[in-house]
Amino acid sequence: xxxxxxxxxxxxxxxxxxxxxxxxxxxxxxxxxxxxxxxxxxxxxxxxxxxxxxxxxxxxxxxxxxxxxxxxxxxxxxxxxxxxxxxxxxxxxxxxxxxxxxxxxxxxxxxxxxxxxxxxxxxxxxxxxxxxxxxxxxxxxxxxxxxxxxxxxxxxxxxxxxxxxxxxxxxxxxxxxxxxxxxxxxxxxxxxxxxxxxxxxxxxxxxxxxxxxxxxxxxx
Amino acid sequence: xxxxxxxxxxxxxxxxxxxxxxxxxxxxxxxxxxxxxxxxxxxxxxxxxxxxxxxxxxxxxxxxxxxxxxxxxxxxxxxxxxxxxxxxxxxxxxxxxxxxxxxxxxxxxxxxxxxxxxxxxxxxxxxxxxxxxxxxxxxxxxxxxxxxxxxxxxxxxxxxxxxxxxxxxxxxxxxxxxxxxxxxxxxxxxxxxxxxxxxxxxxxxxxxxxxxxxxxxxxxxxxxxxxxxxxxxxxxxxxxxxxxxxxxxxxxxxxxxxxxxxxxxxxxxxxxxxxxxxxxxxxxxxxxxxxxxxxxxxxxxxxxxxxxxxxxxxxxxxxxxxxxxxxxxxxxxxxxxxxxxxxxxxxxxxxxxxxxxxxxxxxxxxxxxxxxxxxxxxxxxxxxxxxxx
Lengths: 220, 389
Description:
heterodimer; A: mainly alpha; Arc Repressor Mutant, subunit A; 70% helix; 0% strand; globular; B: alpha+beta; Thrombin, subunit H; 3 domains; 6-stranded antiparallel beta barrel; 20% strand; elongated
């Protein structure tokens, strides 16, 4: 039995694994899988919070699958498109992930309520800003879900990410490697075939200044 | 690097922004020596401006980092979104309903298939299915014209039997009969079997062997010139998939000197190549590049190019970018996309040399003109590309 369970772990995820197990094992596997899936509608547990913090793909995917449809429905009903829904929901998800990173964070409501609330707030704010609608939605916005800091951060990040993507190569690689992955200048120089670290440093400076200029323009 | 510290404040003002940022980076990354570090911190305390600049830079760096993190999370979520919206039912999700079925399957598999699964190698099983497919068109014409084209084919075959030397004709000459006329007209609707091209101006043509399988006479035609020949298959190679066709001396006069020369050795990996062939009733240009030095299962007599090829491209000449003849297209891979096999030019050359006693094919009269534009080259070459029927 021990041997078999080890074997199952190895072959799990491959269709051939069915070949090697009996009916009893199948039942165990299905049970195991049921244990593993996240139902976002349940009260958020410490385990799930931990998984979100680690950005466990399976957990994120399960939550996404469960909550996205209602956000999409809401946004489509409120003069939005599918693309808007996707964008808003992903931003809301990002806020959740950032919130969870803070260890003292505790969620009292259901995960779905929380994510839906953030999405709704973001969307209403976007509507007001774009003035697609003359109506003022400020009253509808639920307070207490997100702080202004977090929202400002999100807009800044959005703008900065856009600029980074617009930088083009090799600037994008240099900036991402240096500031995000904390790669040393020497390694970057090797990566991009610069003759020495100083050349790379010089190039990085130019890229950085370009990015700053772009950001200033973006703000205007 | 830190020489700036030793100088007074006035000179520090002159420190360029680039140098400052280099300093900040060194400090933030802990790449400074201890003495430099203390110099740096004291400088921060001393000068308010310097401190502000440092903090602004720190903010910027943090901002870039968090923006990129945002980008990463967003792209993960986007890929999740994609997964969800291209429904791919996972084995696990459906599992519950499959338990009885799976149980039955397990029993069946244990009894019948397990020995095979254990013994067999999945890769080799795949390879066994993979095949080399000759690029040959079946003798089928487009839908409604099928009957007519069959008729036409029969007629020309009759002519073959009477006298092979009179079958070649010039479309515009007044000699030909109405039946011959029909042949040309109908053949617009017939998809050619393959492609052939003259190797010298003495009436020798080259094509793929599988196109002329068990046939003594092969009809070839060129619509641009309005000529059609009946050629005799004079040579079939036992190993290479190529055959030599010969038309009568009278008809050979119609062919002018061949404007392409054969290269001595195969083009190297990555070289651009193009081909002209007849996968349909009109001439078709395809291009690609050399992707492997050997052919199907490392066959050393052919090489591999990444170029889409279709039935009808068999026997088509392959040209390098400069316009030199670099081989004959014979087959593609049944399993893989855009994998086409070409006979190496050196093998063809050596065959032709060995056959000099039987067939005095002289490649000397072939000339080559270099055109800058591929389209000009094609204009020059296309009268030399013949349909094989």
